[in-house]
Amino acid sequence: MTPVQPTRRATLVRLAAFGVATALTMPAPAMAEARPPLTVFAAASLTDALNAVGRRWTARTGQMVRFSFAASGTAARQIEAGARADLFVSADGEWMDRLEQAGRLMPRARRDVVGNRLALVAPGKSNVRLAIRPGFAIGAALGDGRLAIGEPRAVPAGRYAQQALERLGVWSQVSGRLAPAPDVRAALAYVARGETPLGIVYESDAAADRGVRLIGIFPAASHAPIVYPAAVLKDAGPGAVAFFRYLSSTEARLIFRAHHFRTPG
To answer: pLDDT at position 169, please?
Structure first.
């Protein structure tokens, strides 16, 4: 994906301008056909961005969007077990592949919508300084503490973190000193509350919480590409395909960029 990094203020200004320009061309809620709410299962790291996208969709169409945020693995397993949902947005392709192989996706209704970067964070008042490179002293920086990451077996951010630390040759420094979290936002909270001296989350998470300080960004080559595929689920209700397409619209992309996600174009 092509990196796009406008400032948050500039992006929000553009978003506001776009909203004014499109207000006359989008259906007003009062004129929109009555539709049942959409249910979207999504990766926890998308909480702020997708809530904003959902609010804009509702303002434009009158259709409510209900989100269920969790680790991608947790959400995928719930869908696989029969949980009712219209769309799924995962933080990696593997969990989406699993649902596709299980026949849970609508044919030809899947695409990557955003990307992200992997970040090392510390509590806001921390004085830790680290340069992320092969062999860097992350173990020493932890002191007597632990490293907060998402549980690698269910949380894509945790799996990306393990990949990065292994490729940089420092996994052995921390593998026995982890604070595994049920999703990436929980890992972020551990750091923000000062329960761990360091954590690995997404760049968008680091920007969302003033209680943490960004230490650095992991090299892209140290882990698999971080992409978020979205898909319409089989037997989805009215409006699901339209909302799926809206996730790749110019308006939605501006919202994602304002929340520090990467989008094409």
So the answer is: 98
